């Protein structure tokens, strides 16, 4: 490490710090790599407590020389996005804010919810801080724009069987029929893009032009659909508040300092009207300068953006504002992007309103944090734990009439679901009908190698019997010290090792609510896999009865069709298209499906 520090050049570039496991924990940029990197080790007092803690974990460093500071800034942004280093500000609060994704990499794109902007050819909108806002936007789009929502792989001119109910109620153009010109479907996709970018005026004009063109072409069915779209969009626009005297597109971003970090508010103004509002927060920004936080938020917010307005007004001028403008222009592709901090007038008034919203959101976040901490502290007190449990693991078993038995493991970190740690276990046939045996198998497999961090608490969905199984497995693995509990449904009784009588907590008790959340999440996760297996099993059982379909063909059909109902709806040509299925076998299967 000392040799690397000694060889650092006096050049602009990007540096990456790794811990002992080789994980990238921090990415930074510098005008002078030598001066910047060495400062972490020579003068710890000049950096924040969080960065001092990070410096203690640095085991290795890697750097990339760039031709300019602007190039270093862009590379730094890309590397932060790629590695998500622990000590860079991420504005996640232990979750990823969702995006809406248009799957432009498909011939007939869909609109889906995505946690990360990973598909290169897709178009992303967001991030959204409120999952409810995402659902409402999806509901509105499905009501106004007839996009498909199915997962079928579609090709132009290729029929996929009978269209679904959405086509019958005019919520989908049904490209699955193989009759819809791709250009007509993509015109709807363009409308959705304009809607999600907040460009409603441009969208209204586009819909009106298409409506008149359809009418002139005597395509009255299409003209009627576009007319209904036009009126629906007008109703949406009537609910939007005018907040600017001009008709320019702009975003407003305001920071509000809180005891635990910063709250950030965003207003999206399109054509002079407020079309969207978002609130974000980060508990990782405590003690940081607002100029630094603003810079990192802008990189986070616009890193996956599909639309960037020409003007962004801010409550605080960010660090590297010139580099940020250049970076935003590069993402935008064409046109200028101006960052401003207004001092007076209606733009200043808009930011003041935004600050009030962000402050209210921050207070709600603070209350939420206090409730989470209280639940963890109370849980530690009730169970006699040495401190609030950092990692809680919840377990459940699910099956369908003794078949398709699965186990689920969910993980809560600091009282919040951590879905990256979830695991599913398909239970072996010998123990499928035995709940206790299935639970024992799952726990044995989970704690077999101990590569995953040990939990602060293991919670099992069940009663005394399930608790006994958990105790036995943990003792066999030499983990008898790992805290364990079981929570029974309906009566909500908490069973603990060494206690004859179960513990009954009041229904409003914060510790009970947290345990219920863990237990119910484990139950939901187990049932979702069990249902998937049931669908596959019903199709697999049916295929076993069809002559000429052996294991290889059965596997190909199972991978191609989601279930028996999907296969029943398939045309003969669709079945023939499955790899390994001959014309004779396809015809035999097609007849069998219609018996």
Protein described:
It is a single chain. It is built from 19 helices and 20 strands. The protein has 595 residues and is α+β, with helices and mostly antiparallel strands. α4 crosses α11 and α8 runs antiparallel to α9. The model has no long low-confidence stretch (mean pLDDT 83). Among the domains are: 2-83, GIY-YIG endonuclease, CATH 3.40.1440; 250-364, Ribonuclease H-like superfamily/Ribonuclease H (Nucleotidyltransferase, domain 5, 2-Layer Sandwich); 391-532, UvrC, RNAse H endonuclease domain (Nucleotidyltransferase, domain 5), CATH 3.30.420.340; 545-593, DNA polymerase, domain 1 (Orthogonal Bundle). α14 (464-476) links the parallel β17 and β18 (484-487). The radius of gyration is 28 Å and the shape is globular. The protein has helices spanning 2-7, 33-42, 49-55, 69-83, 131-144, 165-168, 182-196, 200-216, 220-238, 290-302, 321-332, 345-383, 435-446, 464-476, 510-544, 551-560, 564-569, 572-576, 583-593, and strands at 13-18, 24-30, 60-65, 99-102, 111-114, 123-125, 241-242, 250-258, 261-270, 273-282, 311-314, 338-340, 391-400, 403-413, 416-417, 423-426, 457-461, 484-487, 493-495, 503-504. The strands form four sheets. Strands 13, 14, 15, 16, 17, 18, 19 and 20 form an eight-stranded mixed β-sheet that branches. Strands 7-10-9-8-11-12 form a six-stranded mixed β-sheet, sandwiched between helices.
What is the fold's blueprint, element by element?
Blueprint: H1 2-7, E1 13-18, E2 24-30, H2 33-42, H3 49-55, E3 60-65, H4 69-83, E4 99-102, E5 111-114, E6 123-125, H5 131-144, H6 165-168, H7 182-196, H8 200-216, H9 220-238, E7 241-242, E8 250-258, E9 261-270, E10 273-282, H10 290-302, E11 311-314, H11 321-332, E12 338-340, H12 345-383, E13 391-400, E14 403-413, E15 416-417, E16 423-426, H13 435-446, E17 457-461, H14 464-476, E18 484-487, E19 493-495, E20 503-504, H15 510-544, H16 551-560, H17 564-569, H18 572-576, H19 583-593
Parallel strand pairs: 8-11, 11-12, 13-17, 17-18
Antiparallel strand pairs: 1-2, 1-3, 4-5, 4-6, 7-10, 8-9, 9-10, 13-14, 14-15, 14-16, 18-19, 19-20
């Amino acid at each position: 490490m000392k040799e690397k520090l000694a060889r650092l050049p006096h050049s602009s570039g990007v540096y990456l710090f790794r811990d002992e496991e080789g994980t990238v924990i921090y990415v930074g940029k510098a005008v002078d790599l030598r001066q910047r990197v060495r400062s972490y080790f020579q003068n710890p007092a000049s950096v924040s407590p969080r960065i001092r803690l990070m410096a203690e974990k640095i085991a290795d460093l890697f750097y990339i020389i760039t031709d300019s500071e602007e190039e270093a800034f862009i590379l730094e942004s890309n590397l932060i996005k790629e590695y998500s280093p622990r000590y860079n500000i991420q504005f996640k609060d232990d979750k990823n804010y969702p995006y809406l994704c248009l799957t432009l990499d498909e011939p007939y794109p869909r609109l889906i919810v995505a946690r990360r902007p990973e598909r290169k050819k897709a178009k992303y909108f967001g991030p959204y801080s409120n999952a409810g806002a995402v659902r409402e936007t999806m509901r509105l789009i499905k009501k106004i724009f007839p996009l498909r929502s199915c997962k079928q792989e579609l090709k132009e001119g290729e029929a996929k069987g009978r269209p679904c109910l959405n086509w019958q109620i005019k919520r989908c153009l049904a490209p699955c029929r193989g009759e819809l010109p791709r250009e007509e479907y993509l015109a709807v996709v363009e409308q959705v893009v304009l809607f999600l970018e907040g460009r409603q005026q441009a969208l209204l004009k586009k819909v009106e032009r298409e409506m008149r063109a359809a009418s002139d072409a005597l395509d009255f069915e299409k003209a009627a659909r576009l007319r209904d779209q036009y009126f629906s969009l007008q109703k949406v626009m009537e609910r939007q508040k005018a907040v600017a005297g001009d008709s320019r597109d702009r975003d407003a971003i305001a920071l509000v300092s809180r005891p635990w970090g910063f709250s950030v508010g965003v207003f999206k103004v399109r054509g002079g009207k407020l079309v969207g509002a978002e609130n974000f927060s980060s508990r990782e920004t405590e003690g940081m300068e607002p100029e630094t936080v603003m810079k990192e938020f802008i990189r986070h917010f616009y890193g996956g953006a599909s639309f960037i307005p020409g003007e962004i007004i801010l409550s605080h001028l960010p660090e590297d504002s010139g580099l940020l403008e250049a970076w935003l222009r590069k993402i935008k592709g064409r046109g200028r992007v101006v960052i401003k901090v207004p001092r007076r007038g209606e733009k200043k008034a808009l930011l003041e309103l935004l600050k009030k919203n962000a402050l209210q959101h921050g207070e709600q976040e603070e209350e939420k944090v206090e409730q989470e901490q209280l639940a963890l502290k109370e849980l530690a007190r009730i169970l006699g734990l040495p401190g609030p449990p950092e990692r809680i693991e919840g377990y459940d078993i699910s099956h369908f009439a003794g078949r398709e038995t699965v186990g689920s493991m969910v993980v809560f970190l600091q009282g919040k679901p951590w879905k990256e740690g979830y695991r599913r276990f398909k239970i072996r046939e010998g123990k499928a009908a035995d709940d206790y045996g299935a639970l024992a198998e799952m726990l044995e497999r989970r704690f077999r190698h101990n590569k995953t961090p040990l939990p602060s608490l293991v919670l099992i969905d069940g009663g005394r019997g399930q608790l006994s199984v958990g105790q036995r497995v943990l003792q066999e693995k030499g983990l008898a010290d790992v805290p364990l509990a079981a929570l029974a449904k309906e009566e909500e009784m908490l069973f603990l090792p060494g206690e004859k009588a179960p513990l009954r907590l009041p229904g409003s008790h914060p510790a009970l609510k947290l345990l219920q959340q863990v237990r119910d999440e484990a139950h939901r996760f187990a049932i979702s896999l069990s249902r998937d297996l049931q669908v596959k099993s019903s199709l697999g059982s049916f295929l076993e009865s069809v002559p000429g379909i052996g294991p290889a063909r059965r596997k190909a059909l199972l991978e191609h069709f989601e279930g028996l109902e999907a296969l029943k709806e398939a045309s003969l040509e669709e079945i023939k298209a499955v790899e390994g299925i001959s014309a004779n076998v396809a015809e035999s299967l097609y007849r069998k499906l219609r018996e």
